[in-house]
Design goal:
Layout (H helix, E strand, L loop, with lengths): L2 E5 L3 H13 L3 E5 L2 H11 L3 E4 L8 H10 L8 E5 L4 H9 L4 E4 L4 H15 L10 E3 L2 E3 L9
Parallel strand pairs: 1-2, 1-3, 3-4, 4-5
Antiparallel strand pairs: 6-7
Helix pairs in contact: 2-3
C-alpha cells in the first residue's frame, strides 16, 4: 500500500499529511472537497483514503457511504481524520463504513501507524498462494505446499 488519497479541505493539514506520509515512502494525492474526493477515489484507485468529515459540498460521511456502496471503491480502507471526536461522531463514522477514526489534532507518527495497521487488516502486503517467494536458496512457488531447498 503506497498510494494514499487525502480528502481534507484545510490546505495546511493536507500539506502536513502529505509531507508526513511522503517521508515514509507513500505517494499522496489530495482533494479538498467531497465531490473531488469521490472522483479521485474512482479514477486514481488509491490503496487507502484519509477522509475529513467536515468538507465543502458533500460531507465525509456521504463520501464514505458512496465509496463503500461502489464495487470499484468498496474495498479501499477509509480512515476518517477529523476534529469531531465525540463518541457519537466516532460511532457514526464507523457505521458509515470507515475502517478507523483519528481525531485532530493528531500525531503524524500515530497516523502512519494507523495506515500500516489498516494495510495489515485489508490483506494488502500479505502473501497469497499464487505468489512466488525467493529468499536466498529457498523458493516457494504457486500451488506448492513445500519449500524447495
Amino acid at each position: 500500500m503506497k498510494h494514499v488519497l487525502a480528502v481534507e479541505d484545510d490546505r495546511d493539514i493536507l500539506k502536513l499529511i502529505a509531507y508526513s506520509l511522503e517521508c515514509e515512502g507513500y505517494e499522496v494525492t489530495g482533494a479538498t472537497t467531497g465531490e473531488d474526493g469521490v472522483e479521485a477515489a474512482r479514477s486514481e484507485k488509491p490503496d487507502l483514503i484519509l477522509l475529513d468529515l467536515m468538507l465543502p459540498g458533500i460531507d465525509g460521511l456521504e463520501v464514505c457511504r458512496r465509496l463503500k456502496a461502489d464495487p470499484k471503491t468498496a474495498h479501499i480502507p477509509v480512515i476518517m481524520v477529523t476534529a469531531k471526536g465525540e463518541e457519537t461522531d466516532i460511532v457514526t463514522g464507523l457505521e458509515h463504513g470507515a475502517d478507523d477514526y483519528v481525531t485532530k489534532p493528531f500525531s503524524p507518527k500515530v497516523l502512519v501507524a494507523r495506515i500500516r495497521a489498516a494495510q495489515k487488516r485489508s490483506g494488502r502486503g500479505r502473501v497469497t498462494g499464487n505468489d512466488v517467494i525467493k529468499t536466498d536458496d529457498v523458493v516457494r512457488g504457486p500451488s506448492r505446499r513445500v519449500l524447495e531447498w
